[in-house]
Amino acid sequence: MSAAKKTVIGVLAGLIILLIVVPTVYVQVNKRLYAHRVMSYLLHEKHYSREEIASARGIWSVKLPPFLVKVKFSDEPEVEYTYFAHNEVLQFSHEITQTGLEQGISDADLKHYVPME
After folding, report:
1. Side-chain-facing half-sphere of 117: CA atoms under 13 Å
2. Helices and strands in the chain, H and E counts
3. Fewer CB near the terminus (10 Å): N or C of the chain?
4. Model-level pTM?
5. Side by side, which strands form the sheet with 67-73?
6. Residue 111: predicted pLDDT
7. Contacts of 80 (CB under 8 A, 6+ apart)
């Protein structure tokens, strides 16, 4: 194989790897960035303690907006709140798990629900 062919194959392989790696890294970095923004908002503006927040994980959504954060609170493990953190952080929705519904949890029982204005 000639040196020119090796160079072309090397460049094409590098481009293919970049086309796979760059979007993957972009998504992972943004998921962490948005989760961090929501955690910071909950800790510093809403004055929750770290112990009150069971988890905050960034999600890549196929819908718009592309990044959102799912938050579970320690005292409500059967409810998952969805936050957006694009221009400002705001709670968008919530979802009660099937187990929570079976336990009789309703929207009226939610402790961390913030109605949209």
Report:
1. 1
2. 2, 4
3. C
4. 0.83
5. 53-60, 67-73, 76-85, 89-96
6. 93
7. 70, 71, 72, 94, 95, 97
- Alpha carbon distance 85, 78 (integer Å): 23
**Rounded CA gap, 116 and 110, in Å?**
14
Distance CA 38, CA 86 (A): 10
Q: Could you give the dihedral angle defined by the CA atoms of residues 85, 26, 81 and 100, in that order, rounded to the nearest 10 degrees?
A: 180
* Span 75-97, average pLDDT: 93
Continuous segment of H or E residues that includes residue 100: helix 98-102
Residue 117 has pLDDT above 70, yes or no: no
Count of all residues that appear for the chain in the document: 117
What gap in Å lies between CA 43 and CA 53, rounded to an integer?
Answer: 9
Map tokens 């972009």 to a residue: 26
* pLDDT bucket at 63, cuts 50 / 70 / 90: confident
Calpha distance 66→52 (Å, rounded):
27
